[in-house]
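Request from the bench team (R.T.):
"We need a structural guess for the complex before ordering more nicotinamide-adenine-dinucleotide. Sequence and SMILES attached. Just send the tokens back."

Command: build protein-nicotinamide-adenine-dinucleotide structure.
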Amino acid sequence: MDDLDSLFNVRGQVAVITGGAGVLCSAMAKGLAAAGAKIAVLDLAREAACKLADEIKAAGRTAVGLPCNVLDRPSVEAAAEAVLQAFGRVDVLVNGAGGNKPQATTSPDKRFFDLPADAVQWVFNLNFVGTLLPSQVFGRLMARQQSGVIINVSSMNAFRPLTRIPAYSAAKAAVSNFTQWLAVHMAQEYSPAIRVNAIAPGFFLTEQNRFLLTDADTGALTSRGQQIIGHTPQGRFGTPDDLVGTLLWLVSPGAGFVTGIVVPVDGGFSAYSGV
Ligand SMILES: NC(=O)c1ccc[n+]([C@@H]2O[C@H](COP(=O)([O-])OP(=O)(O)OC[C@H]3O[C@@H](n4cnc5c(N)ncnc54)[C@H](O)[C@@H]3O)[C@@H](O)[C@H]2O)c1
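Reply to R.T.: structure attached below.
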């Protein structure tokens, strides 16, 4: 192996990132852009998507911001059309849109028995259906091209569910399972050069979990937040940039024989039994 540079070269590749304006995915978008990829930031929040694309362009890279609701197929198709118009092809899809909500979370005054089905469905749809739909639309383009990389965003909850968040845990388990299914399907039915993997971030303090991990008034760690740090051998929450190296590896030619895996980026959380 002489040419190590080309192993991790993603220059000129077109990367679409759903939920791209969010905390974790905006770091992924900037990381891919810094590595020379052309970025399409897709987000329900149009202004935030355009703002991030402007920031990336201001840094001398290439990006476009587009409105997209990952739960609405015509919206995803319109975004795909716009990406094709802007860049002519799609090499990478990062299915980043996802999240949890308090209404689907148990607490002393909201028992499991009373969780509303519509809140559970909301969480399941956003994480699972919101991964499946863009995979259908952009996967079809990859099948035509006979190449491409899909990266899903799973979670620690997919390996073993965390307390209090049954819908989010089940939905992310479905995302991990779907990652394996789609990897096999794309390789067997369309092209072995279409790869599908997932990243499972450990614990990153963001808007979706701040209400569970820190006290709203004081900002101090809740006992849940303390428990998480106690179970993370590296002793800290992740920072969004911690995800970039793994992402670059998975999308680059260096991972050419890697498909159907879920990579934890978790400071050792999933390896630690607690004893
Ligand atoms: N924060 C964590 O610790 C953590 C851990 C594991 C996994 N994750 C996963 O990482 C991903 C990103 O999480 P984050 O913490 O950066 O969240 P975030 O809330 O900061 O970002 C999510 C983004 O998705 C967008 N979005 C929401 N609904 C959408 C829709 N229907 N269509 C298109 N875009 C939509 C939002 O506007 C937002 O910009 C999610 O899949 C999340 O479940 C987060």
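Two things stood out. The pocket of nicotinamide-adenine-dinucleotide is lined by residues 18-19, 21-25, 43-45, 48, 68-71, 96-99, 126, 130, 153, 155, 201, 203-204, 206-209 (CB under 6 Å). Strands lie at 14-18, 38-43, 63-67, 92-95, 148-153, 194-201, 262-265.
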